[in-house]
Amino acid sequence: MTTSRHPSPVPELNEAFSEPDVAAPPWSDVEAELSAAEMFWLSTVRSDGRPHVTPLPAIWLEGALHICVGRHEQKAKNLARDSRCVLTTGTNQLRSGLDVVVEGRAERVTDRTRLLRLAELWRAKLDWHFEIGDGAFRDGVGRDGLVFRLRPTKVLAFGKAPFTQTRYRFPA
């Protein structure tokens, strides 16, 4: 697991939507879920206001999620116009697991050293091999992948055994 070196967020258990006498999941459990998950759902907004949701892998590193999107894909166009987005992960099970919703702003990652580190993590976790092009990933057939970092501004975690609903606030 790649853990954060940033201060842990403050949990706020919503007792109205949680089982009686339960505690908020510790941030370390949420971070473990973000680190272990392979697939996430990215939600962005098109220029006409319609939502756009798509599955994609993400990498948790140093307190942020990192994604790679094709330069000409709809999600890249949406993020270029409005960087606000949501990444979600979890299970499709009702009575087990932890679902996590991460809100924030996506910012391009172009630093070669960081891209090399992220490419190695993509290879190790997903067996995806990227070269580093001009401020982007490049796949084996020459397509560019723009890399974005999403630092959470708010995280919601929905535990399902027991049922909990927790908001994590991040120190400014």
Automatic annotation (TrEMBL):
Lineage: superkingdom? Bacteria
List the InterPro entries hit by this protein, alphabetically.
Answer: F420H2_bilvrd_red/Heme_oxyg, Pyridox_Oxase_N, Split_barrel_FMN-bd
Q: Name one GO cellular component term.
A: cytosol
Among Pfam families, the record links this protein to: PNPOx_N
Pyridoxamine 5'-phosphate oxidase N-terminal domain location is 30-153
Keyword vocabulary terms for this entry: Oxidoreductase
| Spans annotated as Disordered | 1-22
Answer whether the UniProt record assigns the keyword Oxidoreductase to this protein. yes
Gene3D superfamilies tied to this protein: Electron Transport, Fmn-binding Protein, Chain A (2.30.110.10)
This entry's Gene Ontology molecular function terms read: coenzyme F420 binding; oxidoreductase activity, acting on the CH-CH group of donors
Write down what this protein is called: Pyridoxamine 5'-phosphate oxidase
Task: Tell me the organism.
Answer: Pseudonocardia cypriaca
